[in-house]
Write a structure and sequence with these properties.
Blueprint lengths: L13 H15 L27 E5 L3 E6 L5 E6 L14 E7 L2 E7 L19 E8 L5 E9 L8 E8 L37
Parallel strand pairs: 3-4
Antiparallel strand pairs: 1-2, 2-3, 4-5, 5-6, 6-7, 7-8
């Protein structure tokens, strides 16, 4: 059964409640709910934290932390110890800058477009979305806790937080290509599917 959110959540502004309610009606009519992964859409921030069925890799270099996911275009670049850029153009994964507070990696992300969801319940957001993530490896080095705070005055009535625990594994990244867009045009159930993202003009 596809996930259904609470359209009456007190943290949602009326327009966001209406969006959630519209998705719930769609599901109750027997339709297949939209999922970013199934249509090759980038997962967005903070929704990437919910991609726990596949490994996540952190590549640390002096000036950047690169977060790799075994899923299509989902690669995040976290630029260390620098301020945010001025006049950001909104993008799928926004701009992430980071620093360490002791053993905790802190990632601050802004500049997100409004085409992704903040969770697996298809909760929308605006380009005002601001996400701060904190990653801390446990003392036994067997797990990592990620906590986050989310602000978006265009969508939510206030700041809210969430957490996700990751189990640490020592294994290489998959050698198999995970190509998403190619051949992803089969519509076996004749649903009104959301199209695969495409662009006709360069963004640089």
């Amino acid at each position: 059964m596809p996930r259904m959110a609470d359209p009456h959540s007190p943290i949602l502004l009326p327009w966001a409640q209406a969006v959630v309610n519209r998705w719930n009606d769609y599901i109750q009519k027997g339709k297949q709910a939209f999922a970013a992964q199934s249509r090759c859409w980038p997962g967005g921030v903070p929704n990437m934290l919910t991609y726990t069925a596949e490994p996540t890799y952190f590549l640390q270099t002096p000036n950047e932390v690169t977060i790799l996911y075994e899923r299509g275009p989902n690669i995040r670049h976290v630029y260390m110890n620098v301020p945010h850029s001025q006049n950001l153009m909104p993008s799928w994964l926004g701009e992430s800058v980071g620093h360490y507070e002791g053993d905790t990696l802190v990632i601050d992300t802004i500049g997100l477009n409004d085409s992704t969801f903040v969770d697996n319940y298809r909760t929308p957001h605006t380009t005002e979305l601001h996400v701060v993530e904190r990653y801390t490896i446990a003392n036994d080095r067997k797990s990592m806790m990620a906590t986050l705070t989310v602000e978006d005055p265009g969508t939510f009535t206030g700041k809210w937080g969430a957490s996700q625990r990751f189990i640490l594994h020592n294994q290489p990244i998959s050698e198999a290509e995970n190509v998403c867009v190619e051949n992803n045009d089969a519509n076996y159930f004749h649903e009104d599917e959301t199209p695969i993202p495409q662009t006709k003009t360069p963004d640089f």
